[in-house]
Structures are given as structure tokens and as C-alpha cells.
Automatic annotation (TrEMBL), chains A, B, C:
Subcellular location field: Endomembrane system
Keywords: Ion channel, Ion transport, Membrane, Potassium, Potassium channel, Potassium transport, Transmembrane, Transmembrane helix, Transport
Name this polypeptide is given: Transmembrane protein 38A
InterPro entries: TRIC_channel (IPR007866)
Record family assignment: Belongs to the TMEM38 family.
PANTHER family xrefs: GH25683P, TRIMERIC INTRACELLULAR CATION CHANNEL
Subunit record text: Homotrimer; conformation seems to be controled by binding to diacylglycerol (DAG).
Molecular functions per Gene Ontology: identical protein binding; potassium channel activity
Pfam families: TRIC
Taxonomic lineage from the root: Eukaryota, Metazoa, Chordata, Craniata, Vertebrata
UniProt keyword Electron transport, yes or no: no
Amino acid sequence: MAFLEELQMEGVASHFARIPMFPFFDLTHYMLSLMYLRHEEGICNVSRKSPITCWICSMLSCFGGAMLAAFMLGEPVIKPFESNINIVLATIVWYMVFYFPKDLFFKFCSLLPAKLIIVAGKEIARVRKIAVGVAHAHHVYHHGYIVMVAVGLAKGAGSGLIATIEQLLRGVWKPETNELLDMPFATKATLLGAVLFTMQKTGYVPISKELLILIITTLLVTIKVTLTIMHSHGSPLAPVESALCRVLFGSLPESSSHDEHKTGHGSGARAPEPGKQTRDDNEASLRKRKTKKAE
Amino acid sequence: MAFLEELQMEGVASHFARIPMFPFFDLTHYMLSLMYLRHEEGICNVSRKSPITCWICSMLSCFGGAMLAAFMLGEPVIKPFESNINIVLATIVWYMVFYFPKDLFFKFCSLLPAKLIIVAGKEIARVRKIAVGVAHAHHVYHHGYIVMVAVGLAKGAGSGLIATIEQLLRGVWKPETNELLDMPFATKATLLGAVLFTMQKTGYVPISKELLILIITTLLVTIKVTLTIMHSHGSPLAPVESALCRVLFGSLPESSSHDEHKTGHGSGARAPEPGKQTRDDNEASLRKRKTKKAE
Amino acid sequence: MAFLEELQMEGVASHFARIPMFPFFDLTHYMLSLMYLRHEEGICNVSRKSPITCWICSMLSCFGGAMLAAFMLGEPVIKPFESNINIVLATIVWYMVFYFPKDLFFKFCSLLPAKLIIVAGKEIARVRKIAVGVAHAHHVYHHGYIVMVAVGLAKGAGSGLIATIEQLLRGVWKPETNELLDMPFATKATLLGAVLFTMQKTGYVPISKELLILIITTLLVTIKVTLTIMHSHGSPLAPVESALCRVLFGSLPESSSHDEHKTGHGSGARAPEPGKQTRDDNEASLRKRKTKKAE
């Protein structure tokens, strides 16, 4: 019975893995990427003043993952731009998001039902990309575990990782934060997924790639859709991380526990180092500036 | 009669296309690039304190386009440095521009007649480089239109595009501006040229490559020489751009037209976004600092 | 007699060149790189808050040279991560340096006798890496002298050169300084070594590569160990540089010699250019801010 069930699952998984990404899932990926970009400070100004810069930043948001993966593997970073049909699709989405009359397209996509579909589609595309990235890296470096994880991570969450460069192109510079320092849930999940696919590829996870894709996709879509409905930016991984950090990197200075109680962050213990003060100072000055602007 | 004329033009074009770039046109390219670098704030200080840094920045100015194109196509970024004779030529120009007794070389090149020859030579070299870049990209990606345009643009105007990195190497950081955000005329013309060469390569422009080189070169040299004589930094493309922007990205917020009237820029309408204020604030503080220094 | 002596030297050199880098010399390289990183401002905070970022920065410190060389030559920048055994070794060192109970490991390594061994080992590894880098570049570009020097320099001192990127990953941004602008002795020695190896490779230095490795290693280890014992950050090359700069780039404005006398730096003449003031202004404002914070 269990055997039959598994067979059926395998069948579903293999069917699922054969669904092509283009056009629907690619479309949702472009839409969500550009909707995030649209929320960025100052981008609307750039979209009026310099549409070319806006378009280039948009393409970096859409194809950044593929470009980062290509850079890591010494392939042409411009390779993702070879596929004209994808470029055209992304360009149409870019035009609709930034220049649609009365901004109706962006407003429509921001409605919860539409957004849920887009988020779900994007996560399905993400998992497939991680799998493709790991497989590609495995093809080049058969035993490079770190390489596989890194390329999978880049493919799945690359746009976020190169956001600093994308911001720089449009004249915004925020060196004090990046997605490595302050990983959002999606990036953490991508990292975890890349580790799992790498383990599958090297034989440490005894299930088929198709089944793994199905499982991770189901999990990720469920979680992201739930988070979107709840308007939450929290991470379901936080308790696990916190415990893991305590065990692995736990020998904290005594004062750190005080600090943790005081701040009540709980997402990993902090040590009050001299460097922290600088950061805090910066944050304080940033906050001040923002307050000023708001006035 | 028209047929014979065309034949003659083709003959001239094919002769023109066979003129080698080395040494004269390469020389003018190095001279103009380094003269622009010499005008940069703080570079003279760097040239005294750290000649090696100055030399590296100079090489980035001279070979930046080739390096950027190589980076895009996944080739060794250091490939342009393989050609010893070009490096020696650029190094001699670097030495003359920065360390010539009493700065006579720089002063001589800055005289109008000398500068006109250098500007003309540089534009001739630029058009040839765009054509080479597009052809190279076409060789790698037969149908990658965007790739061809991008590589052509990089080859023709790459030094400007990577100026942010070149500045960073000598300790100057200006994230709020770059040549993408605020394209000078030369970069725009390069982009247009890259588009035309790409169209020629893919059969949409029914004239020979040689003739296209001749036409674009004639236009570009004429315009740049005129602009140099008039000491103008304006762009003859501005009205076309303005109209095009209005048609393509025209659905501006109502307030934008007011804004435009007020500022009177005319080079594309601006929307007063919250992000803009930040930029303006920065610019204001920059201006203040400059004024202070001048005192 | 001299012939016999030389034979013996060649034998020693060839034996020395055959000592494998792994594990001891690689280990000392990782240890010193991470000890330097550990001294950086704010890194301890990052190591608590985001161990992954800390690990990535550590790997950049350990393998930055190989990555930079790979980038220059158009090879996969992630190639150094293919070697699992090296990654494991570096990761163990990383864990010990940042998370050892009561920080005993770091304190032990910072003791003078331990540090001297680590410094000596690191310099031995460095010279070998320069030789490997030059040989690799020579293999790709037979006559690219600059390429050979650049790749040798990158291999030997790359971690320092990409420190700006490594800092950026952990949210620290110091554009006003980098190792090119303000070369420490080790980087200068690496550059000199790369030039020598390039000359040997192209036949201008008539001794064997093994002997050259032995000579440069002996010199470098002696100097660095001496500098470490003396707690000095000075450079034994300063007088040579100063003289060389005076001859090559000597046409300084008259005031420069005054300036030099006044500041008494002696490490290369400085010209009081308008650009310098900016830097000085920045430094002054930085110092002010620091003072403020200290209060």
C-alpha cells in the first residue's frame, strides 16, 4: 500500500517536474520581482527621468539570479539576455508595472487574490531554479559541495543578493545592509533548498529529484502564501536558527545574555561589541534623517 | 548615375574601414581618456602619492570598454592587457599627461586645434569599436539582440560606464551619479550606434557594414567637433528624446508637468517623488560642501 | 668550488620547491588571514548575528587571491571552493578563531612565538602562490607581461585587494582607502616578487624558478619576522621607493619639498594639490565624528 502510494507520488512529482516554466511561472517571477522593485525608494523618479536605467535595473531584478550564477561559474554574465522571448516578456511586465495608465496594473497585482497567485507561481519557479542551478554546478564540479549550494542559492535568490549593485546603478547606495547580513525568509529557504538538492545530487537524500522538488515546492508555497495572507515578514525558521546558533556559536560573552533580554530580539544572541555602536549610531542618524524628511 | 555614386561611396567606405586603428586612432583614444581623467578631482594628488594606482586607473580609463565587454561575454577581463604594444603606448601617454615637465603636454593637448584632432580621432576609434563589439557578440550569440547592443555599448562607451569602479580604486566614491543615470551625449550616441550595427548585422538595415561605419563616423565626428568648438555639453538628441519619452512613458502624474515648467529642464519630465527629495537633499549638501571648499 | 656551492643551492631549492603546501602552509595562511579579519571593527558582532556572513567573509579572506586571479583570467570565480579539503580546513580555523571557548585559540595564536611561526608559514605560502599565478598566466598569455604580473599579484595579495568587497558584504563601507592606494609592505613585496617571477619566466632572470622561490622566500620571511618582532608597520622599501619616485615622477611643484619636510613622512614626496584638501577634510570630519562617538 505504502509502495503504491509512493509510486503515485512519484508519478505526480514527475508530472509536476515536466510542467514548463515558460510562460506562466517565468511571468509570475518577473511580476513579483518588478513589484518589489516598484516599492523601492526613488525608483519612480528614475523611471521618469531615465527609463533606460529603470529597464536595466528591472532586468537585473528579473535575471540577477541567472547572472550571478553565470558569474560564479565563469560563464558569460550576459547569457540570460540571449533568450529574446524572455526579455520581451520581462520588458512587457516592466512597462506595465511602471507606465500603465493610472497605475492600474500595479494596483491590480497588489490586490490580495492576484498577489497570492503571483507569490505561489514565483515560489514554484524558485524551487525549479534551485534544482537547475545545483544540477548545473554538479555537472561542472562533481564533488564541489559548496559550489553546488552557492550556485543553487544564486539561481534561487540571486536578485536579492545583487540588490546592492542594482541600487548602485540607479544612484542609491546602502552599504550598511544587504541580503547576506540580514537574510529574509525566502533567501534562507533557498539556502536550505540548495543544501537539500546538493545532498540529493550527491546521494545523501535517497529520494528522486522530482519528488524533492514537489516536497520543497509544497512547503515553500504553503509558507509564503500564509505569510502573504498574514502580512508577516517573520520567519518560521527563527526558533530553529536561534537554537542552532546557541549550540554552534554559543560561547557568548557573559554580557550578551543581558543584552538579549534587554532588546528581546531572540533571533540569535548579540554581543555588545565596539563595532555595534557604530552601526547603531548610523541607524540612529538614519532614523533621525527619515523623521526629518517626514516632517 | 545614382548607382555609380553608390559604388563610389562603397569604395570610400571600404577603404575607410580598412585603415588600421593602431597607432594613430588608439593614441587619440588614450589621450582623450587620460585628459578626461586628468580633469577629475583629486587625481593629481593620487598621481604623486601613488603612481601605481594612478597607472591602474589610467589603464581602466583606456581599456575599460574592452574589459567590460570581456566581462559580459565571460572572457578574461585582463585580455586587453595581453597586447604589450598598446599597453606601452597608453603608458607613454599616461606618463606624458601626468608627469611631463611643467605640464606642457597636457596644456598643449588642451589647445583647441589639438583637442579637435584628438576628439575626431577618438570618435573614429569609437565607431569602429562599436562595430567590432557587435560583430563579436553576434559571433557568440547569433540571435541575442540585447547582447549585441550591450556589448557594442560596452566597447564604445565602457570607460564611462565603469567610472564608478575606477573612482573607487583611487578612493573616490560617488554613488549618486553614474553614466547610466545621467547619460552624456557620447554614451547615447554609442547606444544608438550599437542598435544600428545590431540591426545591420541581423539584416534589418540593408546597407553594408562599411558604409554604416562611414555614415555614423561622419555624423558623430561632425557633432562632437561642433560641440567641442562651442564648449557645449548639450545633446542634439534632447528634443527627440523628450518627445519619445512623452509618447512611450507619457502617463505622468499631473504635477509632473508643473515641475517641468518650473525647473525648465526639458530633458524628460520629472515626477516629484519622495525619493527625489533625498537626492535633492544630497545634491544640496554636496553643493554646500563645494562652496565651502571654494572659500 | 663556487660551482659545487651553486649545485648544492639548486638542490636545496628544488627540495624546498617540492614541499607540498597542504596542509601546514595552507593552514598558516588561513590562520593569519582570519586573525587579521578578527581584528576588523565590527566583525565580532557579525560573527554573532550572522555566522553565515562571517563564514563567507572568512572564505573571501582565505581564498580571495585565488578568486581574484580566476576572475582576471575568465575562469570560474568559485573554482577555489571546489577543493573540499581546503574548505574544511579553512572552516575549522574560522570556527576556532571566532567561536573557541573563552577565545583561547585566538589568544594563543596572538602570542609572539606562535605568531612568528604563522607569519613565516604564510610568507612561504605567499611566494609559492605568486610563482603559481605567474606560471598560470604565462601558460594562457605567453607574452602578456602585465597579465603575468597582475595574476601573480592577485594570487599573492588578493585578499587585501578585494577587502573592500569583503567589508561591503558585512555592511562596512570604507571607499576612501584600499590596498592599492595605500600599499602595505606585503603587497609591495608581492608586486616585486611577481615582477621577478615574470622576468624569470620570460628569460630575463637567468636562474631557475626553484632558486628564485628560495631566495625571495628567505628574504620575505626574514623581513616579515623582523617586522613582526619589532611590532613595526614600516616598509624597508620606503627609501628605494622615495628615490625612485623622485627620479621617475619627480617634476613636483616647488612647494612639495616643503610639505615633505613639514610632515616628515618620507615615504614618497607629496604635492599639496587641491584634491588633497578634500581628502584631508574628509579625514578631519571622520576624526571629529569618532571623537564625538568616544564622548
